Amino acid sequence: MTLHTIEWHTIPVNRTEEREWPRMNANYKMFVGGNWVEADGGKRFDSDNPFTGRSWASIPHGTTADVDAAVAAAKSALTTGDWPAMSASQRGALLRKLGDLIVEEADRLAEIETRDNGKLLNETSLQIRYTAQFYYYYGGMADKIEGAVIPVEKPNIHNYTRLEPIGVVAVITPWNSPLLIAAGKIGAALAAGCTVVVKPSEFTSASTLALAELFERAGFPKGVLNVISGFGHEIGDYFVGHPDVGCVAFTGGTSTGQRINEVAAKTFKKTVLELGGKSPNIIFEDADLDNAILGAVSGIFAASGQSCVAGSRLLVQRSIHDQVVERLVDFAKSIKLGDPMAPDTHMGPIATRPQYERVLSYFDIARSDGAECVVGGTPLDGDGQFVQPTIYTGVKNDMRIAQEEIFGPLLSIIPFDDDDHALSIANDTLYGLASGVWTQNMQRAFRFSHALQAGQVWVNMYRAASYMTPLGGYKRSGLGSENGKDHVYDYLHKKAVWMNYGEDAPQPFVQKL
Ligand code: NAD
């Protein structure tokens, strides 16, 4: 098979006129202590729509004084007022009510996210509805958090544990799926009885500010949920290092996660970090190829590749390599770029200008690495932030395009000879977030599921997630995991209580062992 670099400079980008993007009330405020407030000093910044390239919302430019106010409100709500007095069942009921309101408002919230990050409305509509499930799930868990009675070997001692809220939780989220990514963290933290301050990405603050309105409508006591907006590089360190923050739950880039962990360590804060990835998606020669091709496409071109779990390294058994490449190239050429609101668009724009420029820079990097581009690989004409689906072959795993997270629709295809070879390439990365295996061989499916160093393994599927299933990364893809039952315990202190109901006098100089 001969592969040619496709000359493909002009994809018909399906632009909708702005008049089809009705104006929304786009003057957002922060939500602090149950009040809708401007930033201290009154500054604001614009939020741009990556499809139209124009500002569509105005966001308060939060400062360290706003961090102080939000953390103070959350600290006060933690120990005074209605929240600590509520039963766990009542907290759960509030979370479920919030879930109902999210379903009611899903279309509006989805449109806000699409305006902010250019993700397909088809996907944001589903994601926001699904977000409600996180609040139902953690609402159900609120009254199932139990300590234990420990049968200590000492006479006349009643020894038990209590699980107590860890404190004010700082939730920091990225731009690719703001409400979905916040949901597990907020849901679990509130189920645990904590209070929360959320800071969404400066590129996509609007949906989280709009979500706060639903907390108000659901009847959460003031200060339980606070949302501040602002720039990570300005207020991030201050927020993470704040002495009254008890735990930081973060999703974002690996270098930001590293910084957060360093700052948090100074005040001994717990962190839960969901970070970047460079995930291997492995197709064996015995795979159902039709499904594997779809899985490869969803792994790298869905959400324009702006997915932490993107299967950006496609490992293909050499015997089927050319066939897989040919089919993927054909598929890539059929992908329709355009208006993320339009139901027939496959890929929207890249969410932010800096990210768009970063993704484009990898065209040159791939060229100088010596990879062969078989489709895409050049900037598109026009002023939109669109990147065409791009596939490289002849990729070696030590090339930069195979080692660095690009967060765009650039696929590296790497051939392998046998199982051991595939596994060594798959695990040869600093990351370990996700992985995919396409095979009909059950023994191989299990062997790879256990040997892959990644927090998620999908066999004969890709890019699935559930509020019930832990999501975490190996190596530099994260610390701890979120979602699922255990995530609630990230937001709880475990306290041991010793009660003496005997008559014996304490030994003053010898520990009671
Ligand atoms: P980012 O790290 O640039 O920003 C994420 C958030 O951190 C933003 O709210 C930002 O304002 C804030 N921030 C920046 N500097 C900070 C600091 N010093 N202290 C505290 N907060 C700070 O990430 P991004 O560009 O918004 O998102 C893309 C990255 O997120 C990718 O690397 C992607 O893989 C990762 N991601 C991971 C997952 C996952 O579940 N593992 C999911 C989605 C995205």
Q: What would you say about this model in short?
A:
By secondary structure, the protein is of the alpha/beta class. It is built from 15 helices and 22 strands.
What does this molecule look like?
The protein has 513 residues and is of the alpha/beta class. It has 15 helices and 22 strands. A 7-stranded mixed sheet has the order 14-15-16-13-12-17-18, with helices on both faces. β15 (390-393), α13 and β16 form a beta-alpha-beta unit. The radius of gyration is 25 Å and the shape is globular. The termini are far apart. Bound molecules: nicotinamide-adenine-dinucleotide.
Question: What characterizes the major β-sheet?
Answer: 7 strands, mixed
> Termini distance?
76 Å
Strand content: 15-25%
Average pLDDT rating? 94
The coarse silhouette is globular
Radius of gyration, whole Å? 25 Å
Annotate the secondary structure layout:
Elements: E1 30-32, E2 35-37, E3 44-48, E4 55-60, H1 64-79, H2 82-85, H3 88-104, H4 106-117, H5 121-141, E5 149-150, E6 157-165, E7 168-172, H6 178-191, E8 195-199, H7 206-218, E9 225-227, H8 232-241, E10 245-251, H9 254-266, E11 270-274, E12 280-283, H10 289-300, E13 313-317, H11 321-334, H12 353-369, E14 372-375, E15 390-393, H13 400-403, E16 410-416, H14 419-427, E17 436-438, H15 442-451, E18 458-459, E19 471-472, E20 478-479, E21 481-482, E22 492-500
Helix pairs in contact: 3-5, 3-7, 4-5, 4-7, 5-6, 8-9, 10-11
The chain binds nicotinamide-adenine-dinucleotide.
